[in-house]
Each structure stands twice: as C-alpha cells, then as structure tokens.
Amino acid sequence: MESIISDSYAVHFNENAFNSLNAHLAKKAYSIIFILVDENTHELCLPQFMAEINGDYQFEIIEIESGEVNKNIETCVGVWEALSELGADRKSILLNLGGGVLTDLGGFVASTFKRGIDFINVPTTLLSMVDASVGGKTGVDLGSLKNQIGVINQPIMVLVIPDFLNTLDNRQVRSGFAEMLKHGLIQDKLYWEALKHAESLEDMKKHILSSIKIKNNVVLQDPTEQNIRKILNYGHTLGHAIESYFLENDSKETLLHGEAIAIGMILEGYLSNKLTNLPFATLEDIKTTFLSKYEKVEFLEEDFENILKLMKYDKKNSHGKVNFVLLKEIGNPVFDIEIPVELFAKAFAYYKV
C-alpha cells in the first residue's frame, strides 16, 4: 500500500512501515526505545514487531492492562513512573503497540513526559488503524466520561501492519468496522455501498487505506477541530454517552466503542431525517445495515434519561449547548446542530422498533 502523507507525519504500511521505522531509528539515535504494550499485544504482536527491527538499541518494554476501563490518569501515572525509573530522558522515544486505548494513552503520556518526547503509533486493531491513530488526538477518560483529558499532538509516524488484525476476535473487528462505515456515511456514498457488502476480515482489510485517506483528508483541512473536522464525530454524541453509561453501570454489559457508535449513527440518522431532511429510505438503509452487523441493544426508560445527562460532557459542546453532526444525505454532513429535546425519545423509540 502507498504511504499517506499527513500535515506533519506519514502513515506507512506493511514492509514500507518497517523500512521507515528502521531508517528513522538509525538516523535519530535515541537514548532508549520504550515500547508500550498491553497483555495481548505483548504476547501476540511484540515478537513479530521486534523481529523486524534492525540495529543494536536499548529497548525497555512497559505493559499496561487492556480495556477502556484502564484508559485513565492512574494508568498514565504508572507509565510516567516506569519511564522515570527506567531512565527515560528527552531523547527517548515511545512506540505505542496496541489498539485505540493504548495509542490514545501512549500518545498523551509521551506528549506530557518531560514536556514531550517523540512517539510512534503502531495500531493493532481495526479501530485504531482507521481512526484512533490518525489525526493527533491523544488522551484519557475522566471516570467514565470519554476523552475528557488530552492534547492534540502528532506522532513521528504511524505504522499500519494489517496482519496484526489476525489476532483479533470478530467482536473487536466489527467494532473497528463501525468507524469505516461512518467514513462512508460522512464522505462517500459509493464507499458506503461497497462497505455494506464487506463481511470477512479480508474484505475489510481491502478498505483500510480508503478509510485512512478519508479521515486524513478531513483532518488536513481542520487539524484542531474548529469546523469541518467535527463531521468525524457523526454518531459519537449519543454514541459516546451510551458507551460511557454502559461502562459505568454494573448491571449492563460493557459495549465496545464501535458497538455504541453504531447505535449512535442510527439515532443521529433519525434526527437527521427530522431536522436536515435525510430521506426516510436512506434512514431505513442506515438502520438495516447496522442492525445486520451489530446486535440490537435493549434500553430501559431510566437508561435513556441517564444517557441524555451524559451528553452534556461531549467535547463538541459550547456555551452550554449540545451540538450534533447530522446528515443531509450520505456524503453530505452538517455540524453544530441543536436538537429539540423531545426528539431524543422518538429517536430511541425508532431504534427499538
């Protein structure tokens, strides 16, 4: 695959990824190369990754626990302390080998340790390949509230090795695929139509480059999310609130990011039909597509009320207003749309039917 050039870094694929990494490490002569992993990538990805690195360097491996529940400042403190104890200085580098939780957290740790050290993201899940590792967003959750603490800071490069996806279970793959479907909805109807027919992991691998290009093109227009970049949050205003609620509620099975965002895209599709004239047939197509790929989740009335309360913490909000990204049609999104409160119950009712 061809490399994708962003504003200050490149996304490299497969053999070119390792060639670029080796050339960079040889050129920079870092004092210590730190590799951040979780228990899964330590076992399943690190040996293959290390086998591709050429040169005699000092390596230190730091392991954190996997899962959104560990994407918090306490985990960051643990990594900062490990870096200090292992002798990290401003000439060290952190390689983040893992999914979106790990690359988000690792990027934030690197951006703040000694006021900033270099980092490289090596995403190992479909979600992190097409979404979390591109665009420079780093950060952690505040309790159950998604991505409340963080900075926008670019990695040195992103290395995408699709073979790492062979280590994932189907649920994790589907979680990442939701973000790819979102890319079609906000930018390209033909891409949406093509993705609807992707069933296997091999089918999805073929579209990774296209999804990264779509996200990168949007980010290049608006690196700090002042306007057009907000469209990447389609499905996320309600989706993040749903994800946070299921994460903090012991009586609920925790939803993966893509599973919650898939629900959010149906709900915000309904709002689009009511407020921005998204055709009803298109809304039905969106709902049918997502429900064919993601199991329907049951919502109780008290769930609905608590989810709405969590929306006030969404990062796109300003001046006390909850702002949404909606669709006029597939490939034509609009942002900063306020929603009449009475429509939320109707959106959940539409999802439940």
Structure description:
Catalyzes the conversion of 3-deoxy-D-arabino-heptulosonate 7-phosphate (DAHP) to dehydroquinate (DHQ). Keywords: Cobalt, Lyase, Metal-binding, NAD, Nucleotide-binding, Zinc. The chain is an alpha/beta fold. It has two domains: 164 residues, Rossmann fold (3-Layer(aba) Sandwich); 183 residues, Dehydroquinate synthase-like - alpha domain (Dehydroquinate synthase-like, alpha domain, Up-down Bundle). A four-stranded parallel beta sheet has the order 4-3-5-6. A three-stranded mixed beta sheet has the order 1-2-9, sandwiched between helices. Strands 7-8 form a two-stranded antiparallel sheet. α5 links the parallel β5 and β6. α12 crosses α15. The protein is globular, with a radius of gyration of 20 Å.
Entry keywords:
single chain; four-stranded parallel sheet; 11 strands; 353 residues; Rossmann fold; globular; 2 domains; three-stranded mixed sheet; alpha/beta; Dehydroquinate synthase-like, alpha domain
